[in-house]
Design a protein that fits this description.
This protein is of the alpha+beta class. Helices cover 34% and strands 18% of the residues. Strand 13 and strand 14 form a beta hairpin. The longest helix is centred in the last third of the chain and has 19 residues. The mean pLDDT is 89. The structure holds one RNA strand.
Length: 802
RNA sequence: GCCCGGAUGGCGGAACUGGUAUACGCGCACGACUUAAAAUCGUGUCCCGAAAGGGUUGUGGGUUCGAUUCCCACUCCGGGCACCA
């Protein structure tokens, strides 16, 4: 038998598996289905580093295992290729984004293929393929039809020097990352999706996702940020206008000693209140407008504000006239953009009141009845009973919330942090939004039969400088006839964000070539939902919320059969560079999987990444320890030459333990311990010398998901099997073969281990205790002291308390 | 500031529902094979101690016959969110 040489076998089998089509998925099967999905990558120009495949290796092992367990498995891969990264890469390298994407995809695919993944490439999808984005556009039209898409003027980050909109990500401390100019807010016409209509369901249905990690669900809950409170109108002294505020603490209304509006509050912007110091106010508004969100929200920032002179608000609870301020710590787009300030019971209001010497009135006392209310040196935000609150005095504050709200004619109201989803970009490289602006009919959807609205070829795909998409410059594309009235119309020139294509791609894999529908209903019913979804935790809030939103919408429209898309979710911990920092070209710590495969082989890379530690935990790359998994593969290889005779009972026992534990480990994504179990078996096998062929084959099968190439080579070339090991059933372990070699009883005195002894078979409690007490060492430790009690844990421990 | 993780030998980590802490791997040391080296195999490897024994899972307390595991307080590290009324 030849020596193990990964270079001789890995490419060979990858080719053969493709030729034999062993990874083809059938839509018709009596088997139960299992849909195993990776978050698809966007093919950047940098190529894969060694951290990227971690999740793919896990799903590869998992899906191979599920196939062996008799499931019909769907395990596809594709490309999320629209969006800024691809566009920026193209701009930088002076090629068309399409060409850049094609090149990068080819590179990614090659890199993935040499690791030996079992994707069904017949189902490959690409979000930039018109046959794909046709359906992305179609889904948008369905949203539009029911009123979930609307136009609105939304603020964006605008770099006045580059003349382009910037994502938060492209900001460097409030300035443009590229040119360093201060970034402004600019309002621009945008398409927005009403995701907030789904806030309550997106929140509640998290409870049904039993197999999602709790911390990811928590992230989503915080992102949705439900809070229950009240909306209350404050009058303005001597005027008819009212100012609506939102508060979660209507119980503290009597303690409201001033009011704060966001600088962008419409009543202030339009100077509708007769403010006497408007010049000063205007200046503050301008200052606030210049600041980025980052500056406005910096930690521990001193509160600033300006009083609106000549105007007073009326506290509706006690009719007191109170001053009104504007301050940038109040945000225009949360709640109503106005608050009542209760300095005694809110930390921010407290800090502000101290600075501007405003009255602080305590209306909730922790101890009731309090002889006097203590002087506060910080806000009291806890519970208590009401004081100085008229007829509500003495009520527990929780009970007072509703009562006070009703008393002043307010209403209880739920708000969410979640904001509607700004769904347009003024960029070239995205799906065109399939709408036409008609002079007569307004906004008209492109008829479904005319989809896709394809991206036209342009000479310049750089941003235009006007804030409009480059598509706006192509008049022959923009000017069209209105599909409704036949009159003059103009195409919408905004494109969709990268999130669009990734919000439904998992459905397209089910039926990737369907020309008549985004997915066939029957196939969708069979494959949905995704059973196992693996991808980075950085997508916990955005991608996973957007996809859940679209899925629920499609469910409501009757297009899909399940209300949630992803049943089980796992996030791989990040693989950092050897220096402990994030792998990045910038730090020069990037390890390319191609190099690792060339040196050690794909099987070793796969084992190593899974053996590094718990799957969901991060780890630094270490080239030093990869030799361990490599030695393991070599041991398995060498053992094939020692097949013959029989397998002794102890090795047989280890084998069945391994079958059991490896299966459980894969199910639970505990690959590191699964691998150590296999190593233990191999060590034992080496010691015993020979192994029966049947037993060796069983072991090869459990190794095969981890090291598919070596296992296949041994199975077919060395052992002479005709069909692939990857089509074999998973071995059934035999509990009776897992023979125990007796039990080691630990004897403790007062909880400290003093001795151990073996019992061959299970004995009665009294017999074990007698044996323990008879031990010489134990006798010495007890040394005539009175035994208070003896605790016995079956087959494990005797603890003698003296 | 808030939320979520985490802290175990020289290093990565293991320990099922509270029951012998340090499995497995790396590294290191010694030995076998070899003229030699590599590879491989074997033995050892938490700390103190000659031994008996004692100590040890970030720190300090608690519950328990018994705590890496449960509870309280704190320190440090990683991630997320951020003046959300």
């Amino acid at each position: 038998m030849e020596q193990y040489d990964h270079k001789k076998i890995e490419k060979k089998w990858q080719k053969k598996w493709t030729e034999e089509g062993i990874y083809k998925t059938s839509d018709e099967s009596d088997k139960p289905k299992e849909y195993v999905l990776d978050m698809f990558p966007y093919p950047s120009g940098e190529g894969l580093h060694v951290g990227h495949p971690k999740g793919y290796i896990a799903t590869d092992i998992y899906s191979r295992y599920k196939k062996m367990r008799g499931f019909n498995v769907l395990h596809p891969m594709g490309w999320d290729a629209f969006g800024l990264p691809a566009e920026n890469y193209a701009l930088k390298n002076k090629v068309h984004p399409r060409q850049a994407v094609e090149k990068n995809i080819a590179r990614y695919k090659e890199q993935l293929s040499i690791i030996g993944f079992n994707y069904d490439w017949d189902r490959e999808i690409n979000t930039t393929d018109p046959e794909y984005y046709r359906w992305t556009q179609w889904i948008f039209l369905q949203l539009f039809k029911v009123g979930l898409a609307y136009e609105s003027n939304e603020p964006i980050n605008w770099c006045p020097s580059c003349k382009t909109g910037l994502a938060n990500e492209d900001l460097d401390n409030g300035a443009c990352e590229r040119c360093g100019s201060a970034v402004e807010k600019k309002r621009i016409r945008q398409w927005v999706l009403r995701i907030t209509d789904y806030a309550e369901r997106l929140l509640n249905d998290l409870d049904e996702l039993k197999e999602w990690p709790e911390h990811i669900k928590e992230l989503q809950r915080n992102w949705i940020g439900k809070s229950e409170g009240a909306e209350i109108d404050f009058g303005i002294a001597g005027r008819d206008e009212k100012i609506k505020i939102f508060t979660t603490r209507p119980d503290t209304l009597f303690g409201a000693t001033y009011m704060v509006l966001a600088p962008e509050h419409p009543l202030v912007l339009n100077n509708e209140l007769g403010i006497s110091n408007y010049e000063e106010v205007k200046k503050y508004i301008e200052e606030a407008g210049k600041k980025t969100e980052i500056e406005r929200t910096a930690e521990g920032k001193e509160k600033t504000g300006v009083e609106l002179k000549g105007v007073k608000a009326i506290n509706p609870a006690n009719k007191e006239e109170i001053p009104i301020f504007i301050a940038d710590y109040v945000l225009a787009d949360y709640g109503t953009g106005a608050i009542m300030a209760v300095p005694a019971h809110d930390e921010r209001d407290f800090a502000f009141a101290k600075k501007y010497k405003l009255p602080i009135r305590m209306v909730i006392c922790p101890h009731y009845p309090a002889p006097t209310c203590p002087v506060l040196d910080e806000a009291y935000i806890g519970n208590g009973h009401l004081v100085e609150s008229g007829q509500f005095n003495g009520l527990p504050n929780e009970d007072a919330k509703k009562k006070i709200t009703e008393f002043v004619g307010g209403k209880m109201k739920t708000t969410y942090k979640l904001r509607d989803w700004v769904f347009s970009r003024q960029r070239y490289w995205g799906e065109p939004i399939p709408l036409i602006h008609c002079e007569k009919c307004g906004v008209v959807p492109v008829p479904e039969k005319d989809l896709p609205v394809t991206l036209p070829e342009v000479e310049h795909y750089e941003p235009t400088g006007t804030g409009e998409s480059p598509l706006a410059n192509i008049s022959e594309w923009v000017n069209v006839l209105c599909p409704t009235c036949g009159g003059k119309g103009k195409r919408e020139t905004n494109t969709m964000p990268q999130w669009a294509g990734s919000s439904w791609y998992y459905l397209r894999y089910i039926d990737p070539k369907n020309q008549d529908a985004f997915v066939d209903t029957k196939k969708e019913k069979y494959w949905s939902p995704v059973d196992m979804y693996v991808g980075g935790a950085e997508h916990a809030t955005r991608h996973l919320i957007y996809a859940r939103f679209w899925h629920k919408f499609l469910y409501d429209q009757g297009f899909v059969s399940q209300s949630e898309p992803f049943m089980r979710l796992k996030s791989p911990g990040l693989i950092a560079g050897a220096d402990g920092r994030k792998m990045s070209k910038r730090f020069g710590n990037v390890i390319n999987p191609d190099d690792v495969v060339a040196t050690y082989g794909a099987d070793t890379l796969r084992l190593h990444e899974m053996f590094m530690g718990p799957f969901e935990q991060g780890a630094a790359w270490s080239e030093e320890s990869i030799i361990g998994p490599r030695r393991f593969v070599e041991k398995v290889w060498r053992q094939a030459a020692r097949i013959g005779g029989t397998t002794d009972a102890s090795l047989l026992s280890k084998l069945h333990q391994a079958i059991k534990k490896v299966g459980e480990g894969i199910e639970l994504f505990r690959f590191n311990t699964a691998i150590s179990t296999m190593m233990i078996f191999m060590n034992e096998a080496e010691k015993s010398g020979t192994i029966g062929q049947g037993e060796y084959e069983l072991f090869l099968k459990i190794v095969s998901p981890f090291a598919p190439h070596a296992a296949e080579e041994l199975w077919r070339e060395v052992l002479g099997h005709k069909k692939s090991i990857h089509l074999e059933p998973w071995p059934v372990y035999d509990e009776s073969k897992i023979v125990s070699e007796g039990f080691t009883i630990t004897v403790q005195v007062n909880g400290k281990v003093r001795d151990t002894f073996m019992i061959e078979t299970e004995l009665s409690e009294d017999e074990v205790k007698d044996q323990a007490l008879a031990l010489e060492k134990i006798k010495r430790w007890i040394d005539g002291q009175a035994i208070k009690k003896i605790i016995y844990v079956k087959n494990k421990i005797v603890n003698i308390v003296v």
